[in-house]
Amino acid sequence: MIETLTAAAIAKLVFDGVIQAGAGKLTEAGLEKGKQLWQKMRGKVKEEGVTEAVLVEVEKNKSSKILEEQIVPFLQVAMLKDPQFAQEIQNIAQQINLEIQQGSKDNIQVSAISHDKSTQNVVLQPKAKTQTFVTHYHEKK
Asked: How many helices, marked H, and strands, marked E, lie in the chain?
């Protein structure tokens, strides 16, 4: 059964996957669908009264707070007023969710913590049966 995604869930999906460019969460095809979804949402919420400045601020500053407070309410209204639009963006969002779920089955995520306590997350998509990892440690003298 396919669940109906709320405006907030769709906005979060777009924010995590496209605006923040979620490392490794989306394949190229998923990223393209995410960009398409953001453009559809962007156009519709502008019709509902969201200013270009707010949209640019979300994109430029990667602000989930502004997205939640100043875009999601307009997206909710747009989805209620235009059920066809709501269905369209929900379908695209479901496709993206499937890409993420499928991708997580194929990906290996590795977190490496260095001696200075910094962490680097790497998502790998193995193509071969065997993967080789090489780690280098550099000590200060």
From this structure: 6, 2
